[in-house]
Amino acid sequence: MKLSRTRASDWLAALAGVALIGLMFVDWFGSASAWQSLTVVDVLLALCGLTGVTLFVATATQRSNAVPIAVSSLTGLAGMLATVLVAIKLIFPPDGASVSTGAWLGLAAAAVLAAAGWESMREERRGNPPYDRSGIRRVSADELREGLR
User: Fold this and answer.
1) pTM of the complete model
2) What pairs with residue 33 in β-bridges?
3) Which secondary structure element, helix H or strand E, spans residue 28, and what is its range?
4) Per-residue pLDDT tens over the stretch 107-120
């Protein structure tokens, strides 16, 4: 694992994912946590939060940028899904309960997760940071033509 491969967006995605999962243990609706008041949505939010941590680990461990690009796109989508799910629950709280601060913080964590996933994908496409390509041998066009015969 090389932390030098990670960028600010990867750290932010991991932090937002951990925050989203952690905030699910505080009061969201009245005196009930997200785990107590949400039925299936709580599991989906936890899985969405895990994508942020997965993005950080994939970026730090993979030598090529193919896997981190794929995971960052999934993280962006998962963050958008989490944002929409939390927003719907804020508009229509379960059993008409009052909305607590934890739900608003969960919405913010989900939005940051989505933004960090998309920013990480954008940075990966530019090749930031440069990956170690010392083990890759450059091949000239002539060598390639000779190899195809």
Assistant:
1) 0.82
2) 27
3) strand 27-29
4) 999 999 999 999 99
